[in-house]
């Protein structure tokens, strides 16, 4: 492997922002080099809290609209 292939391969590795300091880190890195935060798979999961809140708001709004217009 020559030097160019090494750097091309290095650029293809996906990075994600650190959940603490937002520095780019490799997804399989054990620790952020920017802030020292130890990374786990839970740091990179999509948390459903935003979706749950959105669905709850839509359901409550639907219920309120049905209540108001049913009178």
Brief sketch in words of this structure:
Helix content is 44%, strand content 8%. The protein has 71 residues and is mostly helical.
Describe the protein.
With 71 residues, this protein is mainly alpha-helical. It has one domain (3-69). Helices cover 44% and strands 8% of the residues. The chain has two helices and two strands. It has helices at residues 3-12, 49-69, and strands at 15-17, 24-26. A two-stranded antiparallel ribbon has the order 1-2. The longest helix is centred in the last third of the chain and has 21 residues, at 49-69. The protein is rod-shaped. It starts with a helix and ends with a helix. The model has no long low-confidence stretch (mean pLDDT 80).
Kindly list the characteristics that best describe this protein.
rod-shaped; 71 residues; single chain; 8% strand; mainly alpha
Rounded Rg: 22 Å
- Biggest sheet character: 2 strands, antiparallel
- Low-pLDDT runs of 5+ residues are none
Basic shape:
rod-shaped
Order of helices and strands: HEEH
Number of strands: 2
Write down the oligomeric state. Answer: single chain
Give the rounded overall mean pLDDT: 80
**Please, how many domains?**
1
Spatial order of strands in the largest sheet: 1-2
């Amino acid at each position: 492997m020559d030097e160019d292939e090494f750097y091309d391969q290095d650029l293809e590795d996906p990075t994600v922002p650190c959940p603490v300091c937002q520095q780019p880190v490799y997804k399989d890195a054990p620790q952020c080099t920017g802030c020292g935060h130890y990374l786990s798979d839970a740091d990179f999961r999509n948390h459903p809290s935003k979706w749950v809140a959105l669905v709850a708001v839509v359901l409550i709004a639907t219920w309120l609209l049905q209540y108001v217009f049913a009178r």
